[in-house]
Amino acid sequence: MSSIAVSTTINGDDVEFLCRADETLLDVLRNRLGLLGAKEGCGTGDCGACSTIVDGRVVCSCLVLGAEAEGRTIETIEGMANGSELHPLQAKFIEHAALQCGICTPGFLIAAKALLDVNPEPTEEEIRYWLAGNLCRCTGYDKIVRAVQDAALEMRGERA
Amino acid sequence: MRYERPETIVQATHLLAEADSNAFVLAGGTDLLVKMQSDGFEADLVVDIKSIAGMGDVVEADDTFVIGAGVPCAALGENDALVAAWPGVVEAANLIGSTQIQGRCTVVGNLCNASPAADSVPALVAAGAKAKIAGLGGTRMADVLDIPTGPGKTSLKKGEIVEAIVLDKPLARSGDAYLRFIPRTEMDIAVVGVGINLVLDEGGAVQSARIALGAVGPTVILAEDAAQALVGSKLEETALDVMAAACSAASHPIDDKRGTVEFRKQIAGVLARRAARIAFDRAGGN
Known about the structure:
The complex is a heterodimer of chains A (160) and B (286). Chain A has helices spanning 25-32, 88-95, 105-118, 124-130, 142-155, and strands spanning 4-10, 13-19, 51-54, 57-60, 73-75. Chain A has 160 residues and is α+β, with helices and mostly antiparallel strands. Chain A has two domains: 4-79, Beta-grasp domain (Ubiquitin-like (UB roll)), CATH 3.10.20; 88-155, [2Fe-2S]-binding domain (DNA polymerase, domain 1), CATH 1.10.150. In chain A, helix 2 packs across helix 5 (142-155). With 286 residues, chain B is α+β, with helices and mostly antiparallel strands. The termini of chain B are far apart. The mean pLDDT of chain B is 97.
């Protein structure tokens, strides 16, 4: 089986890779590009642990073929912090203890970022519905929701 | 497996028509990639249609909306004109899956996957939607109702691709709605789904109705007796009783872990009542 050459943009960098036709974007990120933040939880689009932003929309990278990345703009958890400066969502997840084992956390952060990108002032209900495709078996979700609310508040500049 | 990304619909239809076997169209991939992970499923050729011009667009013309086969369902909810014209269709499309799934899944994919429980299909059938189908011999139009022929099966011939869904602009004094029953609040597969489109006369009574039932048969069901029961009414209880009973009678579901035959038949009537009220309100009825 011959490989497919793909040119794409990941976290602002031009990236080229080779992949097989049946390889998912998640497999490419993890196995070919060394970007291990996105996790494989279910591999069938149910858990959100592999959440990645493609052309501005949050998607399950396990349900995207690597070949489909051609010409797209991809954001992963690795691009979320600005160097050593954490994104407000990352800082608030730590502050609120919104993670325990951490497997689901990159997916939650990416999905929450996608929410705040389009809706800087979400209600609790909007946050819970938006994040319903991200499963967490540790936290019970409350701390995650509080962290997102607090990050949104800070990002709106409504509190120092 | 071979992956192809043609740039014209003609190339795409040729690829599919000339494939030996196991050739699939890739739009959002939220069904296809899940199947590809399962044992015993083999794809020899995947034809990604998203690079074909127009596939990612919702085009509003004088009389129609044309929804391209590559348009993610999330984009339908962001289209104010479409939401205003066909709120039931958009609600149904936006009920499918999570935020992540919404970013990829398409109504054409929902139709061609041919699940009896597809949420957008009853709403499209109630709205009288048509499928624009490209094939080797050119383009044809078909009623959405006629696409699914059984679980996982469609009337599409080899090499044919549904390239868009076409919705007429709604008539004056009309409204549509879709409701489904699931045992939780989101992200589940319909146990029963009901799509309704009502058109009122100048006096505010129902002039015509279309009622489509999902997940209560091997394909979507157009419940014509139920629709007829509403004609001439202003949704008085007697008319709703006849309509609900006709919905139950038209349903011939299976027993499975998500619902029994008896439950599904009853719920078809219950949801139809509620959806009819929403559609009536949207049509300006009172």
